[in-house]
Write a structure and sequence with these properties.
It comes from Methylomonas koyamae. This protein is of the alpha+beta class. It has a domain of 115 residues. 50% of the residues lie in helices and 16% in strands. It has five helices and five strands; from the N terminus they run αααββαββαβ.
Length: 184
């Protein structure tokens, strides 16, 4: 069995008619001149093709780093949203459709939740808060609302500061009851 003969690129180009002997000699002469200059002068010639390829590789690497950074940031935000959702789902306080209306503002719009009287008092006094989860509002204890606020401050819509009942002895209005119809 005969081994197939391998031809060099130059021979293949000559055989196919894409090149001729004159071009081949010219390329060889230029190559010899270049190597001789490098050897004699110690000067290295700059290969534009290699230089542009290196620049392209560096630009691609920079783009890849930026894409990876953005992807990582998106994954972190997604994980944070999942944590907040889990915290809210595990600690939410039930709303009462037949309860008292509790009004609050979110993005300059007044929203209403119906809750039990005890929950409304907890919201007013700062023992509970309201967290926005996707497009719904959930009531959570104040400690949970603070944990959520640490992760994402925009998720907590209502968290009143715990007010201390300052029923001082010299308060002239301490003996008066607040009417029930003064809710907003």
């Amino acid at each position: 069995m005969k081994k197939p003969q391998t031809l060099s690129l130059q021979e293949q180009l000559l055989k196919s008619g894409l090149s001729n002997d004159a071009k081949l000699k010219q390329v060889k002469a230029e190559k010899r001149k270049q190597t001789k200059l490098e050897r004699n002068n110690g000067v290295e010639t700059v290969d534009e093709v290699k230089l542009s390829a290196e620049q392209l590789r560096q630009q691609q690497a920079e783009r890849d780093r930026e894409l990876n950074r953005q992807r990582k940031l998106a994954e972190e935000q997604k994980a944070l949203a999942a944590q907040i959702k889990q915290i809210v789902d595990l600690n939410r306080i039930a709303q009462d459709a037949n309860g008292v209306a509790y009004n609050f503002t979110d993005a300059n719009k007044v929203k209403t939740l119906y809750v039990a009287e005890k929950v409304r008092d907890a919201l007013s006094s700062g023992r509970a808060g309201i967290a926005k989860l996707e497009n719904r509002y959930e009531i959570v204890p104040a400690e949970v609302a603070r944990k959520i606020q640490i992760r994402d401050a925009a998720s907590v819509v209502v968290l009143n500061e715990a007010s201390q009942d300052l029923a001082a002895e010299d308060d002239p209005y301490a003996a008066y009851q607040i009417p029930d119809d003064l809710m907003w």
